[in-house]
Amino acid sequence: MPAVTEEARLPDLSVRGAASDARAAPRDQATGSESDDTFPKVLLRRAKGHASDPAVREKEFGIWQSYSWSEVAEEAELLACGLASLGLERGDRVALLGANRPQFYWATYAIQSVGAIPVPIYQDSIAEEAVHILDHSGASFVLAEDQEQIDKVLSVRDHLPRLSGLIFKDPRGLRSYAEPGLRSMEEVRALGIAKRAADPSFFARAVAEGSGGDVAIICYTSGTTGKPKGVVLTFDNLIATASTMAAFEGLTGSDSVLAYLPMAWIGDHFFSYAQSALVGFPVNCPESGATLMTDLREVGPTYFFAPPRIFESILTDVTIRMENAGWIKRRLFAFFMAVARSTGVRLLEGRPVSAGQRLLYGIGRLVVYAPLLNTLGLRRLRVAYTAGEALGPEIFDFYRSLGVNLKQVYGQTESSVYVCVHANDDVRSDTVGRPAPGVEVRFSEQGELLYRSPGVFKEYYRTEDATGDAKDEGGWVRSGDAGIVTDDGHIKIIDRAKDVGRLLSGSLFAPKYIENKLKFFPSIKEAVAFGDGRQNVCAFINIELEAVGNWAERRGISFTSYADLAGRMEVYDLVSGQIEEANRSLARELQLAGAQIHRFLILPKELDADDGELTRTRKVRRRVIAERYGALIEAMYGDDDSVDFETRATFEDGRVGIVRAHVPIRQARTFAPEPVR
Amino acid sequence: MPTPFFVLEVALSGLLAGLLYSLVALGFVLIYKASGVFNFAQGALVLLAALVFVRATEIFDAMGPATVGFWAALLATMAVMVLVAAAIERFLLRPLVNQPPITLFMATIGLTFLIEGISQMIWGSRVYTLDLGIPDEPWIIHGLYIGKIDLFAAAVAIAMVIALAVFFQFTRIGRALRAVSDDHQAALSIGIPLNFIWVVVWSLAGMAALFAGLVWGAKLGVQFSISVVALKALPVLILGGFTSIPGVIVGGILIGVSEKLAEVFVGPVVGGAIESWFAYVLALAVLLVRPQGLFGEKIIERV
Amino acid sequence: MTPASAAAHAAPATGTILKLDDVSLSFGGIKAVQGVTFDIRPSEIRAIIGPNGAGKSSVLNIINGFYRPQRGTITFKGRARSYMSPYEAARGGVARTFQNIALFKGMTTLDNILSGRLLKVRSSVFEQALQVGRAVREELDQRQHVERILDFLEIEHIRKTPVGQLPYGLQKRVELGRALAMEPDLLLLDEPMAGMNLEEKEDMCRFILDVREEFGAAIALIEHDIGVVMDLSDRIAVLEYGRLIADGAPEQVRNDPAVIAAYLGAKR
């Protein structure tokens, strides 16, 4: 199987035809003239036409500070001039390493203004991960948030001969550093002031030189295998997709977003930068990662993207809070949630609802839904997206029944985010919707989803053969995902194309599909299914410590650690029941009924990105797991009902140690295939 | 069967009496808040304040016109209470710094005997009358009888509570008091002069004692039983919470009203004299359900 | 970047901010501190190490005014005295944290840190009570100051949380925040990293270095993690049985035979 990029499934939308057709894409009314083919140009127009509208807000020292479009343009100009006077030239790459701060969005404009290319890097990557991207992209400058990030780069600077400048935003702890080329953003800005004084038209000239075919950004994708690859996207790619989707969702300048997902992820660049610029809505930067939920409540965004785990954790939070609430509150909540379940989704989708139900829902909105959404910060939401791993149908319906317009998107970095998306009146929790406007989708004989759109990336940076593998001359891109089309034209992604295998019986085995079914249970955090080329399917389970711990406490089951809890027979009973439920639902899907789970075990250790078992985006690394836990897998396919095992683990405090455990193995009940309806 | 009107009247008199309890309880709360100590000597302070005031009135009355005498006596008594507070700080609290609360509690018991003993030496054990110049006859509003002295007591209690609440919430000393009550060492380390704070707190408790002493003294005469009556504050504290100033008001009113009503409704059934024990039973019931009181801070600590 | 290289960058200023001269302290028959003489320079990180019961905390408590030494002089900011009361110490710019965390448990993080600014209040009791005049402006300034500290210590998310509910590592940070709110010239840290995990220790090291850099305060710290002490400090004083047995730069102390025998030897 050729290397196809692995990336969170993002919404990907493209317009019919290749990148060159991008300009034919519908533009949002606010976007304006044809010549706005780069983001710096869009910014300059905004700074003229909507000078005092808020462009970005940031919570600092406990207060929300707001910056207008003209202020952003001013800052971008000064930074651009400063960077230019430090020697930044057209086509140079500049790495960005930090959290979502306004300064980094300004810097993105600044870098693009002078024709250089921003390369955002995940701020939590370890030095070795960062060095690959810095080295591969050949970045000549790094813009880092603080001492932590600067230290990270300095620790590998010897390997980065092309790196000439390190610029930091927060001077704390850095004042006494004497590294060559190290300076603060303030200093760069001061250089910019001098440069502008000497050459007042520099910025305008530089911006005018840019055009839509230029490279806008290089996003390195995390990848479950191999080194990350740099996806090169042009302004045409992003502008076409961003404006088409803005029109599709009816975004306007009065919308707002919370910028909290990593800047290195294309989604943040798309929602918080590209669409913000094109449509003109403000971007809100949270105070810190830890204050996210408070900030969400204060901002009350109307347009929101979150990976499933965020929606899950919000729901878990609500559930726990309700369990601890007084009985009146609990009863009220239970009653109106039942009303919401029966009525909410129908109302949201404009389907007929009886007057009585409507009235009840109205009361529910008054006493439960609205206050609840308000505390969660979701009250103003008009469009909420989720993507990546699948979201459980109950969770999906929970939000929709409360009136939150939650939708799935499917896409990749390579597609400028969108491939498929739910339309407002056509949402099903088990699909990713239909191809987004402008995107063509077809399937290969192996079931792999292929797409073509104006958002399709230009190339993988300095990796031509990979580009050739992923994209053919006709502009069709291999998504790497296996999918099927449902009767009503929705697309359902079942797994990674390369992970889909067959049991000895010839039955289709889609591990992720099975795992996702398991992960819908709140007590199951991770699952890894095995079965390709085997007699039947077996699975590893990771329990969700918080949920199961809570459950155990309520039952008076005491435990000392994760491993202890994981080995409890009571927990096995709990999980066993859930696996049977998953099997029952698998039995209803003809193609997959043969792949029910026969035996399982609960891992004595949580799968951890620090141990290389998960990617940074929390996807399982099958190969690593198969290697490390080989003995456990074989035991599951053996006859014993338990196995002794030890493995290396990284503890919370960073120490590395050995986990030893006696792991029970359980048989699960399976069901005869039972066709739907 | 009592008429609704009668019930209202009983409730009202209970309310006013309850505020009087609040006034006494306030002294306890202040000291408890600032030092975590239950000040057993608060009753003795009430007695002392009343006696000093009586003596001061005699002295000043002999010197000039009555109205001037009243105010002069009030100021003089306040000054004495501050001096007493300073003495308590110097000779009792300072040597016992960093000792467990139980030690300090024992010390306040000792203090009670000391104050009562000295008072007896100076004043003997006779009953003094205390005249605040408030006429004894009640106001009658729409047929409701309201004792003027009760009204005066209520006004004083409410005014003191408001003043103290503002003081605690907004002023530096008030904030320092909260800090001191939480952790002595930490309070010292941020530059809070502990000794001064204690003098302030005990002085404030002394003021509360003074007002309580004035009102009780005017109603019942100044006698040694006052210091026992002060124990009525205990159920008020349990009800309102040892650390809450607003709780003291609510607790006082609840106790006052409920014991008066109980006297009327339940009294005949059990043979009367319910007022002497009803408050304690009520407090016990509250302790069982809500040990921190209605307004007390829940003790939350991570283990 | 290791803490050591950062420490090497910031050369401490010369002169002394505090000097203990032949200071002795005993409780009953126990001699906690015996004739200790040592000084602290402005903006330096000064570690005090030694086995348990060597008198380290007693030295901090003398500096901070909790203990009154029986002998010796304390010279703080040029003024010699035999005893400095806690109030004087706090007024003069000595702030501290405690080995066992002494926070106002019922208050929020914000109020705890705000309490460190009690001495900075200038308005009168009446202005404060009525919230008029200087008091209003002051209130805002104080809050702003505290917000900067919250940001500095990265504890914005627990702003409104009662500190009693916080995990240990965060409580230590709040305690440091309260000390910083006093704008100290001399910061005494009694085992700032005790009971912390590796990550929390690293954070605390960074904060200590940053405190010196951003606030310019001299820091005297007691710490058992010798690795941390060697990396962090400019000078180290070693106590044993209440006596000073060595004093000097980390290198010097590390190689001192008396220290190896008494302290490091005792550990083995």
TrEMBL record, chain A:
Keywords: ATP-binding, Ligase, Nucleotide-binding. Residues 45-461 form the AMP-dependent synthetase/ligase domain. The keyword Cell membrane does not apply. One of its GO terms (molecular function) is long-chain fatty acid-CoA ligase activity. Pfam families: AMP-binding, AMP-binding_C_3. This is Long-chain fatty acid--CoA ligase. Transmembrane segments: none annotated. Residues 1-10 have a biased composition (Basic and acidic residues). It comes from the Bacteria. Residues 1-38 are annotated as: Disordered. GO terms for cellular component: membrane. Gene3D superfamilies: N-terminal domain of ligase-like.
TrEMBL record, chain B:
One of its GO terms (molecular function) is transmembrane transporter activity. One of its GO terms (cellular component) is plasma membrane. The chain crosses the membrane at residues 6-30, 37-56, 68-92, 104-123, 151-171, 192-216, 236-257, 264-289. One of its GO terms (biological process) is amino acid transport. It is found in: Cell membrane. It holds the Pfam family BPD_transp_2. This is Branched-chain amino acid ABC transporter permease. It comes from the Bacteria. Belongs to the binding-protein-dependent transport system permease family. LivHM subfamily. It is a multi-pass membrane protein. Keywords: Amino-acid transport, Cell membrane, Membrane, Transmembrane, Transmembrane helix, Transport.
Automatic annotation (TrEMBL), chain C:
Residues 18-266 form the ABC transporter domain. GO terms for cellular component: plasma membrane. InterPro entries: AAA+_ATPase, ABC_AA/LPS_Transport, ABC_transporter-like_ATP-bd, BCA_ABC_TP_C, P-loop_NTPase. Pfam families: ABC_tran, BCA_ABC_TP_C. Keywords: ATP-binding, Nucleotide-binding, Transport. PROSITE patterns: ABC_TRANSPORTER_2. It comes from the Bacteria. GO terms for molecular function: ATP binding; ATP hydrolysis activity. The keyword Zinc-finger does not apply. PANTHER family: ABC TRANSPORTER ATP-BINDING PROTEIN (PTHR45772:SF1), CONSERVED COMPONENT OF ABC TRANSPORTER FOR NATURAL AMINO ACIDS-RELATED (PTHR45772). This is ABC transporter ATP-binding protein. The lineage of its organism: Bacteria, Pseudomonadati, Pseudomonadota, Alphaproteobacteria, Hyphomicrobiales.
